[in-house]
Specification:
Blueprint (H helix, E strand, L loop, with lengths): L9 E11 L13 E4 L5 H12 L12 H8 L4 E7 L5 E8 L5 E9 L8 H15 L5 E7 L6 H7 L3 E11 L30
Parallel strand pairs: 5-6
Antiparallel strand pairs: 1-6, 1-7, 2-3, 3-4, 4-5
């Protein structure tokens, strides 16, 4: 066993990659929530939604993209983005499906705000995600990845939904709270060692 120490401005996570190569028999359970397509969302509106859902788990990759880069992605017809709305039309989650690789779909981002976690809504959302992914013509593989900074139940939930883990990697990156992509009080369960505004080696 060996240890590799990180700078105070860095974080590391173990990423697990999962895939599904056979269309499962999925029944989408009833839910008070609904998916609302957002094909023309602006980068600013996307970042607001992304931050609301992902900040508790230090999602930051889309927050550091330029408007031009993010806008090109969001308006790509092979990207299917949905906001999740409650019965008051409040945004409480997001689902992003990426069909840019022929015959494949990546569940790029799947999540709910913390207030809706642990109530069975995640089961509904993942069933919707898998159903919509396989409904796309010609799909032979659906894949997703999660990491040790995500919700503790994420990996087990994907496996129960029929995904099979097939590889792992270690991801090392600048703490997004240090580089200013997220507020210093985001994800308090993950210790903040660096000082916001400190030089950081990388944010990739």
């Amino acid at each position: 066993m060996s240890l590799e120490f990180l700078a105070p401005t860095e974080l590391a996570a173990v990423v697990t990659y999962l895939e599904m190569r056979v269309r499962p028999d999925v029944t989408v359970p009833p839910s008070p929530l609904r998916l609302d397509p957002r094909p023309a969302i602006t980068p600013a509106a996307y970042r607001t939604l992304f931050r609301a859902v992902g900040a508790p788990w230090l999602w930051f990759s889309r927050l550091i993209d330029s408007d031009a880069t993010l806008g090109a992605l969001l308006h790509d017809p092979a990207i299917a983005l949905f906001a999740i709305l409650d019965d008051h039309d409040t945004e409480v989650g997001m689902l992003e499906l990426d069909f840019r690789t022929p015959s494949q779909c990546e569940l790029s981002f799947v999540g709910l705000i913390p207030a809706y976690a642990g109530q069975g809504h995640g089961h509904w959302l993942l069933a919707e995600a898998v159903t919509r992914a396989w409904a796309h013509p010609g799909i032979t593989r659906v894949h997703v990845h999660t990491c040790t900074l995500d919700h503790p139940a994420a990996l087990a939930t994907y496996i129960r939904a029929g995904f099979t883990p097939y590889k792992r990697a270690i991801e090392r990156f600048a703490d997004p709270r240090v580089i200013g992509a997220l507020a210093p009080d985001a994800a308090p369960q993950i210790a903040l060692l660096g000082t916001p505004g400190s030089p950081a080696a990388s944010c990739e």
